[in-house]
């Protein structure tokens, strides 16, 4: 009896807390989740360009065909100063050794402008996270592909495709994420002028750090987007979901961050990948986890007390 009540109570607490976290901190207006289409054929908060196709289960940014490009763009500028964007995607195709070109996740001033940088415009303002599956210039850099890297631009820098953007890259890491049977994820966290990119590409259900760059200045009011392109080589570039979480930003809420010009401290040369299994939790996340642990302890105490009482009853029955 006690046990059933307790387990119901516990699962209720867990459900409420996790739902609360989702509702409170996931910004629906910057997220793309299933079912994508609302009433009619409209996808609320998102616009599409080029070859991009919305299906019930994924958004195919490009199909596995040569010389295609497409993009999807959030239609609401992001006013949240500290955030974490989770992108669930799949890159797959018929090519065994040759495939490309890759895709990019954007947080930029302009949106819906087609161009040469994975289907989007060059000389952009803001942040690009490139998932580059094809090495255009073997020998120029000492990393393997696919390679995830970041670039911050104030509108003056050119993305050099022939060199895989090596000269303008902030940091990066190698990832094996193509043609796997499970979904792959990338998380982009921006808080306290620090950019952290994490990946979950091993089907383990946990993120590990790809790189972290401090001194990254990004304004509020830019747009999230994803673009992809194929050239002589091709791949399906599929987006399954995008979820934007608001992080605790009590330290910066008084600042006006809308006028910031995008910039980053000195570009670092690509360094070796360092695993960081310790996830950095936001204050709110930590709070809920502590609350959950606290409630669990209380539940265990209640269970313990009632068990003890039952034992006493039993003992009394035996004695009398
Ligand atoms: C834009 O970025 C370039 C290269 O980092 C820098 O030299 C230039 O001063 C920046 N311009 C502005 C207006 O911040
Ligand atoms: Ca490339």
Please characterize this protein's 3D structure.
With 320 residues, the protein is α+β, with helices and mostly antiparallel strands. It folds into two domains: 248 residues, Jelly Rolls, CATH 2.60.120; 36 residues. 19% of the residues lie in helices and 32% in strands. The chain has two helices and 17 strands. A seven-stranded antiparallel β-sheet has the order 1-4-15-6-8-9-10, with no helix packed on it. Strands 2-3-16-5-11-12-13 form a seven-stranded antiparallel β-sheet, covered by helices on one side. A two-stranded antiparallel ribbon has the order 14-17. Helix 1 packs antiparallel against helix 2. The radius of gyration is 23 Å and the shape is elongated. 36% of the residues are buried. About 3% of the residues have low confidence. Calcium ion (CA) binds next to loops.
Number of structurally distinct domains: 2
**Using only CA atoms, what is the Rg?**
23 Å
Q: What would the average pLDDT be, to the nearest integer?
A: 89
CATH architecture of the largest domain: Sandwich
| CATH uppermost class of the largest domain | Mainly Beta
- Largest sheet report: 7 strands, antiparallel
Model regions low in confidence, pLDDT < 50 over at least 5 residues = 269-278
Rounded to the nearest angstrom, the distance between the terminal CA atoms is 25 Å
The CATH topology of the largest domain is: Jelly Rolls
Kindly report the spatial arrangement of strands forming the biggest sheet: 1-4-15-6-8-9-10
Helix content: 10-25%
- Small molecules bound: 2-acetamido-2-deoxy-beta-D-glucopyranose, calcium ion
Question: How many individual β-strands?
Answer: 17
Strand content: 25-35%
- Tell me the series of helices and strands, N- to C-terminal: HEEEEEEEEEEEEEEEEEH
Taken from the alpha-carbon principal axes, the silhouette is elongated
**Tally of individual helices:** 2
**Backbone structural class:** alpha+beta
Membrane topology: Single-pass type I membrane protein
Subcellular location: Membrane
Domain L-type lectin-like: 24-247
Organism: Nesidiocoris tenuis
